[in-house]
Specification:
single chain; 487 residues; alpha+beta; Beta-Lactamase; Helix Hairpins; 4 domains; five-stranded antiparallel β-sheet; 15 helices; rod-shaped; binds adenosine-5'-diphosphate; binds magnesium ion
């Protein structure tokens, strides 16, 4: 401890060696010899000096007054000064006396700490990493500025947030189990990926770790740090979707090739069977008993050819012939077949628009479309119901607002099949045209009906839309472009 006594704002009268050395003098005598104003020697900062003098005059005593000292060689040290005024009887200041403690090391440590703290604060504030600290009751105790920046909340708003409430409802369980695990495993960083609410109501993906540092005395919190990975997630999702689509396309192609190959060979065989049946018929005497049987063979061959053509249509290696067709006529002609398809429980109603313009397409394929849709309608109405088939001419002046895949503007002939069956939910509806998609058991569903319908309608230059609600029936509408050729 340094000790001094000085004339009122003048020379130092006495001092000890410690003070002399602290101020940079080899001996007390050197210090006293160089002394003009003790306060200037004790404090190199003029403002602090004034303050020191003022305090001494007003209060008579100061304690722990921290001042910088410039040593003789120009280096700065810090002193903590305790000093008091000694007055004469009339109140005039006689001298000052006091002690000093060298606090340079402490000041340096404090300074370093402050710099460190400021550096870390700046790092946290400017980091893209978002940091949240919760207390043992999961209340927010700290939130880095990046949280507000990334979530779009103001700093004010974000500090009021309930940390868990911002987590997507489906992901809350993840956070909760992470918190539970953290309580059991202090200091172990636990990774997580969840969706968080932005101020504008949209969701973003974040990824990070949660660490229980409740037992670390300096932190006493659960530290959660994370960063935004929304873009990465979107890219991943897109990638997955594309991969799934590619797989689907490859599957389709393989099935198509297989079905096409089979159908092609099958078709050749049918041609042979039909041809020989024809020849046999020609040779059989008119009154032969076998005639009726051979006629049956011929008819069965023709029916089988329809199936083979359907397969070819699906495989796209089709032998489709385009002709000008009257949809009304087709509906009427297969009416009897449809009655058989839908069974007794289902009532068939047809409403055919008069004077319908022709469309271009393959007759047997369009028949197949109607039959496939009717079969699905029957399956959707196990307890019975009504199937309504309608045709209409329409002139679309603009695409249908309710459908993303609406036909372009133009003149169309529309064919709709409406059932009063079980309908479908959104999720099912999104997949019905995918090959192999079926909600039926293996005996009843192949999942190829609607994909074939889709392929045929597309081939004919048309499009198919579906409207359905669970328990409210289903309506399929096929739009085929009107043909230019005369009816
Ligand atoms: P499948 O009939 O072999 O299941 P489809 O491709 O014909 O295959 O139909 C796919 C799925 O679409 C069906 O399993 C069913 O879930 C749904 N679906 C098709 N038509 C209807 C309909 N009229 N009513 C309700 N669901 C239908
Ligand atoms: Mg089907």
């Amino acid at each position: 401890m340094g000790v001094f006594r000085a004339v009122a704002f003048g020379q130092i009268l006495t001092a000890n060696l410690i003070l002399a050395r602290t101020l940079g003098y080899p001996s007390t005598a050197d210090l006293i010899a160089a002394s003009i104003d003790f306060s200037e020697q004790l404090c190199s900062d003029s403002e602090l000096r004034l303050e020191l003098r003022r305090l001494l005059e007003v209060r008579g005593v100061v304690r722990g007054f921290e001042v910088p000292v410039e040593q003789k060689d120009g280096r700065t040290r810090w002193l903590s000064v305790d000093a008091r005024v000694v007055r004469e009887r009339d109140g005039n200041i006689l001298r000052y006396e006091g002690t000093t403690v060298d606090i340079t090391e402490r000041r340096r440590a404090e300074e370093a700490l402050r710099t460190n703290l400021e550096r870390f604060q700046a790092l946290v504030a400017n980091s893209a990493e978002e940091i949240i600290v919760l207390d043992a009751d999961q209340k927010l105790v700290y939130l880095s500025p990046s949280v507000a920046r990334a979530s779009g909340y103001s700093r004010e708003e974000s500090t009021k947030l309930d940390a868990l409430a911002a987590v997507h409802p489906d992901d809350r369980a993840i956070v909760e189990s992470c918190l539970r695990e953290a309580l059991e495993k202090p200091e172990q960083p636990l990774p997580f990926q969840v969706r968080l609410l932005r101020a504008d109501g949209s969701w973003r993906w974040v990824e990070g770790v949660l660490t229980n540092l409740l037992e670390q005395p300096r932190i006493e919190g659960i530290v959660i740090n994370y960063h935004d990975i929304t873009e990465r997630k979107q890219a991943e999702e897109e990638h997955q979707l594309l991969a799934a689509e590619l797989l689907q396309a490859q599957k389709m192609e393989a099935v198509g090739r297989l079905a096409g190959g089979v159908a092609h060979n099958f078709n050749n065989l049918l041609t042979a069977i039909g041809g020989y049946a024809e020849l046999a018929l020609a040779r059989l005497p008119a009154d032969s008993d076998a005639r009726a049987d051979v006629e049956e063979i011929k008819r069965a061959t023709e029916r089988a050819a329809v199936v083979a053509r359907g397969l070819l249509a699906f495989s796209r290696r089709r032998v489709s012939c385009r002709e000008s067709l009257d949809l009304n006529e087709i509906v009427l002609e297969i009416g009897a077949l449809l009655d058989q398809v839908i069974g007794e429980n289902v009532e068939l109603k047809t409403t055919l628009a008069p004077g319908l313009r022709p469309v271009e397409g393959d007759r047997s394929q369009l028949e197949q479309v109607i039959v496939n849709l009717a079969m699905n309608a029957r399956d959707a109405m196990p307890e019975g119901g009504t199937l309504t088939i309608e045709t209409a001419s329409l002139n679309l002046s603009e695409p249908l607002a309710d459908f993303d895949d609406s036909p372009e503007r133009g003149r169309y002939v529309a064919l709709s099949l409406r059932d009063t069956g079980i309908g479908m939910d959104e999720e099912t509806r999104a997949k019905i045209f995918q090959p192999f998609f079926t909600t039926k058991d293996a005996d009843h569903g192949t999942g190829l009906g609607l994909s074939t319908v889709y392929a045929i309608v597309e081939e004919a230059g048309g499009c198919i839309l579906v409207e359905s609600q669970p328990n409210e029936g289903t309506t399929f509408v096929i739009y085929l472009p009107e043909s230019d050729s005369p009816a």
